[in-house]
Design brief:
The protein has a nine-stranded mixed β-sheet with strand order 5-6-8-7-11-12-13-15-14, sandwiched between helices. Strands 1-4 form a two-stranded antiparallel ribbon. Strands 2-3 form a two-stranded antiparallel sheet. Helix 5 packs across helix 7. With about 400 residues, it is an alpha/beta fold. The chain contains eleven helices and 15 strands. The chain has a single domain, classed as Rossmann fold (3-Layer(aba) Sandwich).
Length: about 400
């Protein structure tokens, strides 16, 4: 995200206490600063700008956890150019980290789904290893997709007179069709092509791992793919869910798009993927909350319940599709830490054992509990057989 987004007011967020909450949970809420959270509401917060990749990444080792049950998995690290020589975009900052990350847990029974995760502006898959590993422990095949994310949508579209600004930028990043002067994404460098060519590569290199189940007619089989991302990546996931019927959409700290403060951008609405499959998590002190909150409402997510504070609830969080947190980020509450703390390895809060404190929330978002998705899952089969909505999924 941009360092130039300043003086953004985060409007109050209502977070009712669970009717099942006990005194100990209320004491947890009371320990949160009163300027941030009253028992029934998050106070308005003001703070200065944020950058998804605030500083160059260093050559740090892979993240490891102390808890035996969270022994780190080993990713496959694959350069996009190895999957398709026509992919020629390489980030100007830290080009040595231009890699996809691919995960699977050999000790877990596969759940038959692929989770594709997309980083925020300027981010890399290597900066989000904890959540990718957690998805693999739930039985997902997991891809941390390296895509062309060097232009921040909020930088170029906030205040733009064009109501289609952010939608056109995001669509060009997805399919490589020229729609916007703010980005220059070729078809080869698009999300669609990068994911397709990586799946074909994995299928050829590791035929026994069934990567082919996520392809149909040489393209991604979207109904078997969950898409997720952080910040700008959350917006890309949400838009993919709008134009394709995907298995799930998981948004961390996003989408932040707010061309006009307090309003939703033109592209923000439910499309091919039903609202029952959209889930989100963000920090109550995130200075982009002013954009995130109305966007989540526009995806019709509030009909599954009010947002739940993760610190005062437990999975399945009353069936809500919107989780929030006020846990202190690594490095404290100063920006951009709250915005990044929902899922960035170096900012997400950790316990004394090194395990992510938001692990339970991540697992819920990823579908560890699917009690409220029966109808939506039935729609997947209808899409597969051509009996779903007109338009179906693009395959």
């Amino acid at each position: 995200m941009s360092r130039n987004q300043s003086n953004i007011l985060c409007t109050p967020l209502k977070i009712p206490l669970s009717s099942r909450g006990d005194d100990s949970r209320r004491r947890i809420v009371n320990r949160i600063p009163s300027k941030t959270l009253a028992l029934a509401a998050v106070a308005a917060l003001t703070s200065a700008g944020c950058q998804d990749a605030a500083r160059p990444l260093g050559p740090t080792p892979m993240i490891s956890l102390n808890a035996a049950e969270l022994a780190p998995l080993v990713p496959r690290i694959i350069a996009p150019q190895a999957t398709d020589p026509a992919i020629d975009w390489v980030p100007a900052v830290n080009p040595q980290f231009n890699h996809h990350f691919v995960w699977l847990d050999p000790d877990q029974k596969p759940n038959g789904k692929l989770f594709v995760f997309m980083a925020g502006t300027g981010g890399r898959p290597r900066g989000y290893q904890l959540v990718q590993q957690e998805a693999a422990r739930l039985g997902y095949r997991v891809i941390g997709l390296m895509y062309k994310n060097n232009v921040a949508v909020v930088d170029v579209c906030t205040g733009s007179p064009d109501p289609a600004c952010s939608g056109n930028v995001r669509l060009e990043i997805i399919d490589g069709t020229d729609r916007s002067g703010f980005v220059d994404v070729s078809q080869a460098n698009s999300i669609d092509n990068r994911l397709t060519k990586l799946l074909l590569y994995l299928d050829a290199q590791y035929p026994n791992e069934e990567w082919s189940r996520f392809l149909k007619d040489g393209e991604p089989r979207w109904s078997r793919i969950a898409v997720g991302g952080h910040s700008q990546g959350a917006g890309q996931a949400a838009l993919i869910g709008k134009i394709r019927h995907v298995n799930r959409v998981i948004m961390f700290s996003g989408p932040p798009d707010a061309r006009v403060p307090g309003a939703t951008d033109a592209w923000v609405s439910i499309g091919e993927t039903p609202a029952a499959k959209y889930f989100a998590l963000f920090h109550v002190r995130d200075h982009f909350a002013q954009g995130i909150r109305p966007n989540l409402a526009a995806f019709d997510m509030e009909r599954f319940g009010d947002p739940v504070l993760t610190e005062t609830g437990e999975s399945p969080y009353g069936g809500t599709h919107i989780l929030v947190t006020d846990l202190e980020p690594q490095g404290g509450y100063a920006n951009p830490n709250p915005h990044q703390s929902s899922v960035v390895d170096t900012r997400t809060p950790l316990g004394l054992d090194g395990a992510p404190l938001l692990r339970g929330a991540w697992r819920y978002l990823l579908g560890a509990h699917d009690a409220d998705e029966g109808v939506a899952d039935d729609q997947d089969e209808q899409v597969e057989t051509g009996a779903g909505r007109s338009g179906g999924e693009r395959q």
